[in-house]
Amino acid sequence: MKNWTLDDIAWGDFDRSKVDPELVKLVKAAALVEHNGYDYETYLNNVFGDDPEFRTAVAAWAREEVRHGEALGRWAAMADPSFDFAAAFKKFTDGYKLPLDATTSVRGSRAGELMARCIVETGTSSYYSALRDAADEPVLKQICAYIAADELRHYKLFYSHMRRWLERERLGKWGRLRIGLGRLHESEDDELAYAYYAANADPGQAYDRARYSAAYIRRAYAVYRPGHVQRGVAMVLKAAGLEATGRLNDWLTRLAVRFMRWRTRRLVRAGA
Question: How far is Cα 186 from Cα 195, in angstroms, rounded to an integer?
Fold first, then answer.
C-alpha cells in the first residue's frame, strides 16, 4: 500500500494471545534501525550532493523509513508495555554512529553505493515478507505487509538511480556482485547487533557484539522460508546485471537456505 499512514493500521485488531515473544524481540530491533532513516538521508545527501533528482527521492524515502520505525515501535509497545521506544532509540543512536561526515561513498563509487542500497532493500523486503508470514498477530502481519511493499518500491527506486549512475561510472556486473555480497555479509555487523542490544538488553548489561549478533541472527534466520530467500536472490542478481532466474538463482538459493539453517542450528546449540 503506497503512502499509508499510521491511521491506516487496524490497531484495534491487536490480539495479545497471538503475540510471539521471539518476534517481539526482532520487531523492537527493527523499529530502531528503520527509525534512523534521517541519518541515512544525511549520509546519502553528502555523497550525492550534486544530484538534486536523487536527493529529492531520498527525502521521501527517509520519511517512509522513519514511519516504518514508528509503526513497528508502536506495535512493540503494545506487545510489551515495558518497551520504551524513545529511550531504546536514544540508546541505539548514542552507541551506533553512521559516517555522517563522509562526502564520498564508502563503496568507492556512487554506482556502488546505489548497488549496496539495492541489497539493503532486497534484504528488508524479504525480511518483512518473512516476518509477515511467520506472525499470527494480525496487526503485525498488516504492518509487515505494508513495509515489505514499501521496501520493494525502494529497491526499484535505488535500482533506477543506479542504472542512471552506471552511465557515468564504470562498474561491471562482477564488481556490482562483489559489492552486493559484501553488503550481505554486513548483515552481521554492529548495526543490527547494537539495535538488538539497545532494544532488548536488561538495564546495566554491557554491549557484546558477538553475543547480541548471535541472538539477533538466530531469531531472524528462523523466520525465512525458501521462497523468501529465492525472491531475495533474484533481486540481488538483477541488481548485479545477471540473470535473475534460472540455474544460478536455484543454486544460490539452495546454498543460502542451507547456510541459514546450519547457522541457526549452530546458534541454538550455543544458546544464543
Answer: 14
Tens-place pLDDT, residues 50-91: 999 999 999 999 999 999 999 999 999 999 999 999 999 999
Q: What would be the CATH architecture of the domain defined by 16-270?
A: Orthogonal Bundle (1.10)
Closest C-alpha to 187, from 159, 220, 227: 220
- Cell triple for 177: 556482485
Question: Is 26 in contact with 34 (CB distance < 8 Å)?
Answer: no
What are the extents of the domains in the chain? 16-270
Nearest residue to 65 (alpha-carbon basis) of 127, 151, 187, 155: 151
Burial of 141 (0-12, 13-18, 19+ CB in 10 A): middle
Distance, CA of 45 to CA of 55 (rounded, Å): 6
Say whether pLDDT at 16 is over 80: yes
